[in-house]
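Need tokens for this chain, all 464 residues.
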Amino acid sequence: MSSSGQTYTYTFSLGSNIGRRMQAMRQAMDAISRRVGRVTSCSPMAETEPWGYQSTHRYLNCALEATSCLAPREVLAVTQQIERELGRESKTVGGHYEDRVIDIDILLCDRLVIYSPELRIPHPRMWQRAFVTDCLRKMLPDNGSGGSCNDAVVTAPRAATIGFFDGAHLGHRHLAQQLVQLNRGRDAKAVMLTFDRHPHDAICPDEPPVALLSTPAGKREAFAYLRRDVEMWCMEFSPAMAALTAREFMQYVLREQLNIDTLLIGYDHHFGRPLGGETFDDYVRYGRETGIRVVRATELDSVPCHVSSSAIRRAIASSDFARADAMLGYAYTWYGRVVHGDAIGRRLGFPTANLEALHPETILPPGGVYAAMVTLPGGRQLPAMLNIGTRPTIAAPAARVTVEAHIIGLHDDIYGLHVGVNFRARLRDEHRFGSTEELARQLRHDRDEVVRLLGGGAAGPAQS
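Here are the structure tokens for all 464 residues:
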């Protein structure tokens, strides 16, 4: 019992995927009444698979309300125990709970979601449950502060824009500024809707993942200067999301769940499952039908080239770092952790910091030798001769790719520290030398070239 003597109101959404559904509902209701508190209302509802799912299955669900003096953490424990007792833990080979007797989809204490093992924005069938839709209208997806849809209440219509925003480049910032102007005078902040993964990775899971320019945290940090005017919400890009057409996404997610009434679309942006050559005029028509004003953003014209995340990735892949940085509006930085190596560089007279990727999903230039600036903890920057590759002169064929930086002027022990690498120029390809003496001569030449390009002094002994 709650030590404070407070009475809580709990709302459950229940579902069952097997036969004898009504009996299963009664079992769950009886268990909740006996162990949680008095059930004051129950609203059965039938649901079907949503658009985009070729299924005729129907599931019986209900929303019931109970009053209890048990605290939320106690009700959470009871809820999970009820699911286990009624068969929730039994899975099929595919990992789904097809033979479950009862499934508690969502549990609220007043308006706070305290249990929702399957809650996603959007959940494959979430918008067809009137009870859940009503609740989600009052909830937000991830707002970038480490929270989730449980953390805040949507109190007013908002203007929003959609995109993956990889790299938070100049084009994205131009779009964000237009969003701020479009939302000016509103009671609520504007919203930048983004996704937890690149859409290509969800739509084409058998293909190599897209190498990214930024992490989710990096994107939030890049837009921190707009914090007074804009919130960034992150949604899961799931197969259910990929199955939605643009109109379905606008109606079921933007309008009904998130209370978006104004949508700013990038001048060349497309979203939703393609129906065949949709244009901006189609989005405007969908907006009229769903109650969303659709506005087209202007193109960034302050940069002489077309700015896009794909163009920036191509520039990095071709070692055109000046072009990539010009489109980003800042220096692209790859982050690594300094780990112990095999000290071969030290024996050659070129001690190196062996770097393990902090974010393996982020893009790394192709193999070769580079001039780079390395940022140490505290902001200190030093030039470096950096090698990406398999070290064919000293390693066995098919060895794994390593990243090694000979940091010029470093005299500190940096094992275990995190460093940033800003690539400045590609010096040469990596290739096999006839001997380690020939390799050492080439490394001396490479180091001289780095010093010529970036400046620097003698290397210290503390690198590995």
